[in-house]
Prior knowledge:
Keywords: DNA-binding, Transcription, Transcription regulation. Helix 2 (42-55) packs across helix 3 (63-70). A two-stranded antiparallel ribbon has the order 1-2. The protein contains six helices and two strands; from the N terminus they run ααααββαα. It has a domain at 48-119: Arc Repressor Mutant, subunit A (Orthogonal Bundle). The longest helix is centred in the last third of the chain and has 22 residues, at 108-129. It has helices at 16-36, 42-55, 63-70, 74-86, 108-129, 136-155; strands at residues 90-94, 102-106. The radius of gyration is 19 Å and the shape is globular. It is mostly helical.
Amino acid sequence: MPKEIEFQFKSPNESPGYLLGQVTMLWQRKLKAILDRLDLTQTQFVLLAALGWLLKKSNAVTQVDIANQSNTDRMMVSKVLRTLEKKKFISRQEHLTDTRAKVIKLTSEGTEVLQKALTVVENTDTEFFSVLGHDLPSFNQSMSNLIEQKKEEQKD
């Protein structure tokens, strides 16, 4: 007879990783349903949103900037940006000082689809996380702290 499997947690609901995975899957399903209507994947939306944020501060946003802002793999960012360029949501232009880099810009179509996506995603987030009520700011702060700490650990 096989040995009984031992778990550290007494139940799945005591495992933060399990719970995070479950919440993430439920949230991603909701986002997929609304982003499909805009011909965007969640990753495409994340990169467009990162670009949108970065463009508020600089007119010379690069692929590396987008990867850093979104905490996403640089090679994957490159592939997704090519897809967004084919969809005519972004354009790439030569960088003025770095010949290896391209400046990424939103096109008018990209600006329009990003604004629509932001509206539906933010409304979906508000509805999805509304069950947390007054605990939402604390939940957001805990997630922000965890992200910053883990990003710092990865640098070491």
